[in-house]
Specification:
Two copies of one chain form a homodimer. With 621 residues, chain A is of the alpha+beta class. Chain A is built from 14 helices and 25 strands.
């Protein structure tokens, strides 16, 4: 099995198009906004260890993770665009964080000042290893993006303490209630080469859910019926479906894929594949959102995918699913992972953040109506921050590293996973140097040109998406391929500077039905164009989306949408407005009447950027 | 405004038909089953006050209410059918309960043995006044049905303690977290004539939600945002809509209606009318179920009425709504209250209990499918008992007193609210004696005959239901009325023995649409015949209900349903089964195909009596 890797962090830059714009916004707005909130709420200051009982701003046990994620975003941002002031602030944050480290390497604000003496006594609930994981990721980012190693050294000391404490080389058993440390330790292993970190990551996975079950044995406030929530009900290799808290799940699956890859563990890989199938074929929204229940923010059961007030589809879970898909794609080369990666990147993730970059959804509904109760406060209007602010801080680090998903490198092969506008300057495994540009405005436009800037021999693999009925690859004027998508198409040759490969992806709008098992989508359709999922959005002056019935026999017409970026393609849908036979009764006899009506569908990821609105992805047909 | 009362408890007996069968089942099964569980779980034994720290079966703070409700049902059962063994058991229970009374009148097992010394310190959470209320209701039932006053005397002593403790004549402010005591104190006032009980009931209502808010001031574990849950966010007279925990709400509204009636309080009556309108016009399922969210078991917001896994519609809430409607109907005479009373009685309530009478729903879904997650354990299969077993014990007292809703008595007037088969032997206010029989098999059949058995002069008012497009009233052969329903039709005359009034209610099946604001019902219809709401039910061998599309242009045909009582009218619906274009993908392009299909709809209240099944009330059209 040929495997792939993301390109080194400096080797690909976004140059234009929607993703680039989102990244620019992240630098301009998301990073400053989340930095300000991290400071204002006391999260950064917590590392000064000055908090005492009775004072305000008591550190919460998940606070360190928020600071770490913003810091990771700051490092990534600095690599995209030098900014001396930001860099000074970055250094100050690192100094502050490292100053909180205890002599033995321990580094956690909550257990240092709020519950001193209680470290590692409640791994189930109190996010201790989760916070450590995010600090490690931030440290690795600081090293990879900026070459700064102060935090990296500190986190190695902390990780060494963990190695002495837990697992085969440590004193005791233990694993986290919120997974994250596993993938972080793998990253730490990858930059340091220290096998013990990989070994500990593997231990955290292998011991999870093994009898006697640690969470039950320790009575860490976790009851047996809650074990599924923590993916701790069975050993991770035995799990048959993806269940429980969605973010925990996909973070863990990402770590599993990492360990499977680095230890050649086919059993663990098979478990990863089962988890992916469970999600992609049974438990995922059409937008790539996962976690259909606000109760426990969890993956529930097959086809339980309601669109309204009950659902969750947390922004962080979509980002985590992207991490998992990326790992599986690079590990197996199988394009099916790229399909979901793309779906999530362009839809489930981006819906979670405003175009301005400073407001966020925690929950990503597929239907919002005045009459639907929400179970997550403020959930139908993007918020600047949350008490549990994982989503904003996830965006700070995700958007600034967006480019990591675009290409993969294999032995003598460059794979274009997402054909967005970018500049590539990288050396492939095997030594070939690739200098190239991708342009075309994907995903809003379907014609993509790859221009080779320097002579070199390598294989260029273009992903032909499975949603595409007619994908054409041209080299110069010659048609190399013209058929359905659903695979990578490889052109291996000795390239000359100026060579151009053109990818033409038919972007005709498509109406989708849902599997009939999803009861709430019966009699409804969703609309996609390319990889982009659409929604119908209405405002106060319009009729409610719920009254719209779309005519699927009439092709939606492309149109400009006022108030959104100029390259966004709106789709004008023809249909009817259904008028109730009786407006003032809850239930009544008589046939509703219809009158012709039309609505503009916009990309789901862009809803509620023109003011508070009502929205639905699944429209009556 | 002319007011009405239920008939005295011995004056009306059900004689045949569905309600009579349910009552017989209650005597045969529900009463013995709930008695056995009350004993087995330690609820009755708790009154022996022998429990000590470390022992099993620690009394829960709501246990006394369960015992009281079953006891109330036992008293009612004994009035329907003498049973010396049951009567001995009744006396034993009363002895046991009264033995737990403290010298000052206090009577609560939890605060006597589990938290001694803490009485009245946590009125918000710990159901102390709620338990007292149910014990009072049981005591009043013992007196009314059996003429036994031991428990009544005991509860008067307890109520006297409450009068000395709370309110205008007591030492301090206080009102319950779970309303119930209000309506109970009114009952106690009605049988004892002691004004202080009415005064305390009125105080509990009047002080509720008044600033400084007691629950906030006492910090009784209740946060301000939870005040809506307790209907304690505003003074009860100021409430603009029905919100919060549904059972608490309708129990309180019932008490409000009682106090409004007995104190001629037009402001309080207006508040009751607003609450009713809020429920009936904005927040009620088509079955009469209320409480659309399993979260807080609560009434949420207008039109938030999803059918699936999120909903609640607790059985107790439907019974409570019946109590509220009954009071409003008798207080105002307005037939609109009878409409909802009837709807709830025949649908929302009866669905909660199996035909065998020994298994119960807590949650009453309107749609159950294999793929919908449930948030209430075991919720899609009726259970024998629950940890919080309010619903089974509610049925024990409700079904045995079913006859209370059938007729109302006013000055010289007998009102037939629900024309079910019954025998009436009562003396009306004003002195006229009514001896009459009602027959016809309502609600399964629509032709009802009222036969007068004894000469007397009085007004007979027949309710012509609003759902009926063609209601005909005949006296002998003479047509007195033939038009739409939606009112009471009165025949005032000097009756002779043998006089017959016939009520013919057109029972044509009707398809209903929901207000378009209820998004989950868009493109769907419900089916009613008379007051009975139907559902489609399928079993393993059939196709899932979710694939059925009903042809509303073809009238459903009446049919016999195997496995259900012979008089039950099934409705054979024509339509189509929609076959997905692609069975193995979550989302796909392509048009589904349809093939002709038919399904038998059965009364919603009878679903899942022929084995585990899938069911939907709202069917795609």
């Amino acid at each position: 099995m040929k495997t792939y890797s993301p390109l080194p962090v400096h080797d690909l830059k976004l140059t234009a198009g929607p993703l680039k714009r989102r990244q620019e916004t992240a630098l301009r707005a998301t990073i400053p906004a989340t930095m300000a909130k991290t400071i204002e709420t006391g999260r950064l200051d917590a590392f000064s260890l000055q908090w005492k009982e009775g004072m305000e701003k008591q550190p919460h046990y998940f606070w360190d993770s928020d600071t770490a994620k913003v810091l990771e975003g700051m490092a990534a941002a600095l690599s995209l665009q030098p900014d001396p002031e930001l860099e000074r602030e970055y250094d100050r944050w690192v100094d502050c964080i490292v100053s909180a480290q205890q002599p033995d390497g321990y580094l956690n604000t909550y257990f240092t000042v709020v519950e001193p003496g209680k470290r590692f006594t409640n791994l189930g609930i109190k996010h201790e290893l989760y916070c450590c994981g995010h600090l490690i990721e931030a440290a690795v980012a600081g090293w990879n993006f900026l070459g700064k190693r102060k935090l990296l050294d500190a986190m190695c000391r902390y990780a060494d303490l963990l190695c002495r404490t837990f697992g085969p080389d440590g004193e005791r058993r233990g694993w986290p209630g919120h997974q994250e440390i596993e993938l972080a330790l793998v990253k730490l292993y990858q930059v340091t080469g220290q096998e013990r970190y990989l070994k500990l990551a593997k231990y955290f996975l292998d011991d999870r859910g093994v009898e006697p079950n640690l969470f039950v044995a320790e009575k860490a406030g976790i009851y047996e019926e809650l074990l599924k929530y923590y993916q701790a009900d069975v050993p991770v290799r035995k799990a048959v479906d993806a269940h429980g808290h969605a973010v925990r799940a996909v973070y863990m699956y990402s770590g599993m894929a990492d360990v499977a890859r680095l230890t050649n563990d086919s059993e663990l890989l098979a478990a990863c594949e089962r988890m992916f199938q469970s999600i992609a074929e049974k438990r995922m929204y059409v937008t790539g959102g996962i976690g259909s229940s606000f109760y426990q923010e969890a993956l529930t059961k097959d086809y339980d995918l309601t669109n309204g007030s009950l659902m969750y589809a947390e922004s962080c879970a979509s980002m985590g699913l992207a991490f998992f898909c990326q790992r599986m794609l690079n590990l197996t080369g199988d394009s099916k992972y790229a399909e979901i990666l793309e779906l999530v990147i362009f839809n489930g993730v981006l819906a979670g953040i405003s175009l301005k970059g400073d407001a966020f959804f925690y929950t990503n509904y597929l239907e919002v109506d005045d009459n639907l109760q929400c179970y997550n406060s403020g959930a139908t209007v993007r918020q600047e921050w949350f008490g549990c602010s994982c989503c904003p801080t996830s965006f700070a680090r995700f958007l600034t590293q967006y480019q990591q998903f675009v290409c993969s490198a294999g032995e003598g092969e460059l794979r274009l996973n997402l054909p967005v506008d970018c500049h590539i300057d990288t050396t492939l495994p095997g030594g070939a140097h690739v200098l190239a540009d991708v342009a075309g405005g994907y995903p809003n436009r379907g014609v993509v040109t790859v221009t080779i800037r320097e002579a070199a021999e390598f294989a260029l693999s273009l992903r032909l998406p499975a949603w595409c009925r007619q994908a054409t690859v041209r080299l110069g004027g010659e048609v190399l391929y013209s058929d359905e998508g659903g695979k990578y198409f490889t052109v291996k040759r000795r390239w000359q500077a100026g060579d151009q490969v053109t990818l033409e992806l038919e972007m005709k709008p498509r109406f989708l039905h849902a599997a009939s098992q999803i009861t709430s989508n019966a009699g409804r359709v969703a609309l996609k164009r390319g990889p982009v999922v659409y929604c119908c959005e209405t405002f106060d002056d319009d009729f409610p989306v719920r009254e719209f019935i779309v005519d699927t026999a009439t092709a939606p017409q492309e149109t400009v949408v006022e108030g959104l970026p100029a390259d966004v393609v709106g789709l004008l849908c023809q249909g009817w407005q259904e008028l109730p036979a009786c407006r003032d009764k809850l239930y009544f006899e008589g046939e509703p009447t219809r009158r012709p009506a039309q609505l503009i569908a916009i990309p789901y990821s862009l809803w509620q950027n023109r003011g508070p609105s009502r929205m639905a992805v699944w429209i009556r047909e």
